[in-house]
Here is the input.
Amino acid sequence: MFSIDLTSRVPIYEQIYSKITELAISGTLSENSQLPSVRSLAKDTRVNPNTVAKAYQELERRGIIYSVPGRGSFVAALDSGIFREAALSDFDAAAKTAKKRGVSADVLKQHVDGIFEKGEEI
Amino acid sequence: MFSIDLTSRVPIYEQIYSKITELAISGTLSENSQLPSVRSLAKDTRVNPNTVAKAYQELERRGIIYSVPGRGSFVAALDSGIFREAALSDFDAAAKTAKKRGVSADVLKQHVDGIFEKGEEI
DNA sequence: TAACTGTATTACACACCATAGTACGCATTG
DNA sequence: CAATGCGTACTATGGTGTGTAATACAGTTA
Here is the structure.
């Protein structure tokens, strides 16, 4: 379920955070579905339980999941609009930078088409 | 000439690196023009000279500037194509994320148009 | 010569990341 | 009730990256 890159500069807890966020937003993990326990995920990924706990706590702090001591952790009810807005904000920033670098609007639109022509490449 | 955010998570040397890169690419700092010395920039920004030196060494390593012991550091002859490619790569990544979040190709193209309609807003 | 330049070195402090081990309270299951 | 699994909390340790501090050296320039 999770692949961790130990050589990456990105902290492990952040990799876990991103993975679960992606799965939750995309709907792969449906609302209120239970996540693997801190200990089981730690065992599977061969990572320290503290590291997984840190990821879960960060996910809860940002409202992606909710945790119940004694029961487990579950996917929260997500407002996908917020994540869409954030993605669009990043997109705008990238487009502005490309513009500064001398890339034309047409080229950027072609890139958009190129990305959307491809299938579900995740 | 440089403003440093000491509270930022981005390392100081990386902030200096980014600033100078931006100035060099935009042409604000023309080719072969001399940069402030390590010590003077360190004094102006109230940063340790070693930190500035680290930024300059990274800039030289990536071909943005060249340094001559005893003389100073200067803006290199830049191949703008490299930076255009990098900007496009970032743009693609942002577009893919937006796609994952459920944003349509048309909306993204509208955003591109919106950015290019505006004047030189830097 | 004097004052500048980039560069190199050593040392220290601090924060972040990750691991290890232990412990507590709560919920579920047998 | 007892056992197990759950999230959570805590201390301790080590590694790495960042930033500062203080020198020192060789090359360039006025």
Summary: Chain B has a mean pLDDT of 93.
